[in-house]
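COMPLEX REQUEST
Ligand: adenosine-5'-triphosphate
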Amino acid sequence: MSHHYIKAKDIHYRYPDGNEALRGVSFLITHGERVALLGRNGAGKSTLLLQCNGLLLPTAGEMNIGGMPVVKDTLPEIRRSVGMVFQNPDDMLFMPTVEEDVAFGPLNMHLPLKDVEERVAEALKAVGAYDLRKKSATQLSGGQRRRVAIASVLSMMPSVLVLDEPTANLDFGGRRDLIRILKSFSHTQLIATHDLDMARQLCSRAIVLADGRVAVDGPLEETLADPTTRRILEID
Ligand SMILES: Nc1ncnc2c1ncn2[C@@H]1O[C@H](COP(=O)(O)OP(=O)(O)OP(=O)(O)O)[C@@H](O)[C@H]1O
Ligand SMILES: [Mg+2]
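STATUS: Structure written out below.
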């Protein structure tokens, strides 16, 4: 088994308009760990997740996935290893049908057609969206689109899963199914969320971002009870 850790070393990121969204973020998430990434709106969570699969490259510092630095030259390999579920599923679905969306990644990996079909069916069944396979994403509800977006990542069998607000728009059943899916995925996961109940069910550790910096990093329950975290997240 390979060791798919996520290592961030003093990551800085400045958007082209000059906005400094990350100001020196460091952590090590080891193989198989499930970590909640918490923080108020604008804290830098999405910006940080986009660094994990190289959609954004740091202005300074280094991101490393399982021994591979996230740099321009490694992007094809990084994209195969790191499955990213975006905050908005519409950013991920662009093919005429659901099954083509879910097949897109495996086809790009040049897998034999039979293997692609198997992966597509398996991933859609895992998220309870197999019956939707012939539909267009535009015909689906928000929660159904999110399920399909997750399937489109699972079909690539990534070593690391990075999810941005995965429970947004899901109904109770969808949320429960998602938590079950993520629990059954034994690899490394980094989950940005405002859903503290889901974080409690899934994660043993929390990283709290504030103004582009790691404010708290520790065991989840301890972190949520910590007065600094509660002040930052405005829980009380
Ligand atoms: N494309 C962009 N261009 C310029 N600034 C941006 C861009 N996207 C985000 N930002 C800024 O970067 C900072 C961090 O934003 P980010 O989207 O990472 O926050 P977040 O923690 O994911 O928030 P939320 O909980 O609302 O999803 C914010 O100040 C935001 O305004
Ligand atoms: Mg965000």
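REMARKS: The CA atoms of residues 45 and 192 lie 6 Å apart. The radius of gyration is 17 Å.
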